[in-house]
Write a structure and sequence with these properties.
single chain, alpha/beta, 2-enoyl-CoA Hydratase, Chain A, domain 1, 12 helices, 16% strand
Length: 256
């Protein structure tokens, strides 16, 4: 196994105004701190390039879009400062997606857990397959969906977000997610999903970038305080993950 595959990667490809950012980790596309930082850097970089018209966010493989936080790194956290640093990675990434002037299309080819649901919610338009079930599992491991919560609540509403957060062990199917607005489209096959993504990205690549930037700013109006809010939420998760309850729960999840 090569080092890149073992440790995961972030890759960026550019083609006629469409920038594709792909991430991968062998543990169901979970996100350790290094990948969170690389993804944030990639989003900032693509957003600042004048030739970028639209961004596609995707992960490799077919089974899971993103399993959320890396359990190995959660268990390695020894104090609140380290906890804040790790969860700030999700805060910085969500804020990068939010502030990027281009529309971001999320390609959801598999299940979303925890932070993965947050990434789908922070995208401007998510296109998924029918097997892309969702679960906010944070409470089940002794913490809570504090950092991703604002993005998820903004997209699906407080009632649906509360249900997803409280029943942390229950999967909701992709149709549930579509009806509540997390997914804009559902497709029965990967080919159908990719065809739709290609069509939409091509259309946006030929649209007025100033108009799209103004639309995105309007869509995200009222989130200007998230730079501070998400870091405050990261501090909460960073403290909770140190509890004995959380450490025991994460160990049990790792062994499954």
């Amino acid at each position: 196994m090569t080092g890149e595959i073992k440790d995961g990667y972030v890759k960026v490809e550019r083609h006629q105004g469409v920038v594709t950012i792909e991430f991968f980790h062998p543990q169901s596309n979970s996100l350790p701190g290094r990948l969170l930082e690389e993804l944030t850097h990639a989003v900032h970089g693509a957003g600042n390039e004048k030739d970028t018209r639209v961004i596609i966010l995707r992960s490799a493989g077919e089974k899971a879009f993103c399993a959320g936080a890396s359990f190995d790194e959660l268990l390695a956290i020894e104090n609140a400062e380290q906890g804040l640093h790790f969860f700030s990675g999700f805060a910085h990434l969500i804020n990068a997606l939010r502030k990027c002037p281009q529309f971001i299309i999320a390609r959801i080819q598999g299940k979303c857990v925890g932070g993965g649901v947050g990434l789908a919610a922070a995208a401007d338009y998510a296109i998924a397959v029918e097997s892309a079930d969702v679960k906010l599992s944070e409470l089940a491991v002794g913490i809570g969906p504090f950092v991703v919560g604002p993005a998820v609540e903004r997209k699906i509403g407080l009632a649906a977000f509360s249900s997803l957060s409280i029943d942390a062990s229950m999967w909701r199917n992709a149709e549930w997610a579509r009806r509540r607005g997390l997914y804009a489209e559902l497709h029965s096959t990967l080919e159908g999903m990719d065809e739709s993504i290609h069509r939409l990205a091509g259309s946006l690549a030929h649209s007025n970038p100033e108009a799209m930037a103004a639309m995105k700013e309007a869509f995200w109006k009222g989130t200007e305080h998230w730079d501070r809010l998400l870091l405050e939420r990261a501090a909460i998760s960073g403290r909770l993950v140190l509890s004995e309850f959380s450490r025991d729960a994460i160990q049990k999840f790792r062994k499954k």
